[in-house]
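For practice. Supply one:
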Amino acid sequence: MPKLNFIQMLCVWALPLIFAITVHEAAHGWVASKLGDKTAKMLGRVTLNPLKHIDMIGTVLVPAVLLFFGGFIFGWAKPVPVDWRNLKNIRRDAALVAIAGPCSNLLMAIFWAGIAKLGTIFVHQGLQAAVFLIYVGMAGISINLMLGLLNLIPIPPLDGSRVVSALLSPRLAIQYENIQRYGFMILLVLIFTGVLTFILQPPYVLLQNLIYMVFSI
């Protein structure tokens, strides 16, 4: 397939990225509402409307800059508010609310694989939009796998840390969650030293190859 310039890449990656982050946040709010906390629902955050979730820096600026320089692409949306006190079993339910985000990204990766598969079918029929479907589908797989795996890393406040907290004793959980004040800095260090790529690449390649094999992309 032809190589894309930056503008074309931006068009291909924009839609999957926005919806990867949107669905991720909406999933947190939806599960929280099912487990007793209606905060996100009352604030209109249990929705697939991207405008309710977009953070101009984390959802637009940072990913665009990283895409331009060809580096590790990540982003974030406005966090969905959850009042943990409303949950029936705070420790267990907090972990379930957290894991809903990465699970939604896995489902989105499968959805985009379906789009890419449609593109491979239509390309043999000479449909002009087919190549775009393949590109955007493959971008959707990549973004959602990376976002899901990234959030499973147990560094507070990433989603994986909520699962770890639920498994620790209350005393240890409090000490562990204190790392949150340094969480973003730790993440940046891991990104710029290449350690994060080293950690994420094996499961990412495994899942990507599995999806490509299942869908024959």
Notes: The chain has nine helices and no strands. The radius of gyration is 18 Å. Residues 79 and 135 are 29 Å apart (CA to CA).
